[in-house]
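Late entry, glutamic acid complex.
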Amino acid sequence: MTVRTRIAPSPTGDPHVGTAYIALFNLCFARQHGGQFILRIEDTDRVRSTAESEQMILDSLRWLGIEWDEGPDVGGPHGPYRQSERGEIYAQYAHQLIDAGYAFKCYRTTEELNALREARKIAGMQLALKPADLALNADEKSRREQEGWPYVVRMQVPTDGVCVVQDMLRGRIEVEWAQVDAQILLKSDGMPTYHLANVVDDHLMGITHVLRGEEWINSAPKHQLLYEYFGWEMPTLCHMPLLRNPDKSKLSKRKNPTSINYYRRMGFLPEAVTNYLGRMGWSMPDEREKFSLDEMMAAFDVQRVSLGGPVFDLEKLTWLNGLYIREDLDDEAFLQALRDWAFNEAYVRQILPQVRPRVETLSQVAPLAGHFFSGLPAINETAFDSVKLEKEALVKLLQFLTWRFEAVPAWHKEALLEEVKALAEYFDLKMKAFLAPVFIAITGSATSTSVMDAMVILGSDMTRARLRHAIEVLGGVSKKQAKRFEKEFQEL
Ligand code: GLU
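Prediction complete; structure with ligand written out below:
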């Protein structure tokens, strides 16, 4: 048997370090067994998926040195590798399940489903909805069918007993069937859900081992049952530990930069980031901290993955990156790294229009445009002295803007302006007054290039990291404040 693994990212945002981490382990597992590694795009969520996000995922994985044998850009014998292009395949398999009695059409409306859930909640029952709960009487069912009501396709699930799933690292995992919903397989628009598409594709693409994040453990019983219904052999499952913040909470962009774009923009070397991701829950047999991707692939043993939540620690990564810069880069390579990073024509060209109208000598360029070539600005609280706002209001402004920016799907000037305008209105400030503290947070100074353009050029993650940094410099947000802010923000 040829080992085949895959990564199956959903292109719904920035390229996440967690995606790269899972990709790396799948790649190493495949290579270790002389097998293949596949990249599949799970873009069945048509509202949230974007082509830009897909491109960023491919680019950042490549930047890290992670290469795939088959995928949407390189092709392969099991394509298409984008789920949005495989719609007919899923519909056909969903109907096969209906014909065999393993799935059924469900005509329940959203209101009815909410009412059913509410009633169960009040009765203190499990919330999972089973086929029997969803059944309509025969007359009503045929009426809705004849009138052409929208329907979803759901899978049959047992009502009681325990489902046992085997995991390569965790051994036996038990989940009570009572907790498992009659999962939707096809939505009313005919698109498959993650569960159906994932199982069908893993099977058709010959995937033998699925290494994925532990957040998918609860899906495993449904997947196992689908493999049984289809009569297919299930790939071996391996649920990897989730990356964590230093406070052990799940790694989230609210606390840490999670986008690979950020690490790239911050001037980390891809070799160091990949090496660091390889240290997440895994170690070399000789425990050394610095190793290349080739060395990791050669020494890889999945059984060395430890399940205690690996901490993604920026300080540690920075330290490791320093080792790479000092030990691995000769002058030539260092120069090249600088070029790849920001001292290249494409990037400098973006800065030119910002700088030209504002300088009289070339020597003014570096002091003026330094923020385009740096990480977090060296500021302290006094940097905000000129801002005429109470400290609490100032911190709130920066915090609200950070949160609004988290949700911006496409990072371009109009979108950012919209957020800024909305918040300026909310804080009852003129644009200029609203932007004054933002200006300092982003450029590190009270006079510089346009802050709106700077944010566009710096990108979402670096912008948010600088806003967060400014909040920290101003003393941070206490737990109590955070609660209050959240509440107010939600009502916005
Ligand atoms: N599309 C899922 C994700 O975004 C894939 C999960 C899996 O590997 O099964 O993580």
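The CA atoms of residues 266 and 374 lie 7 Å apart. Will revisit in the morning.
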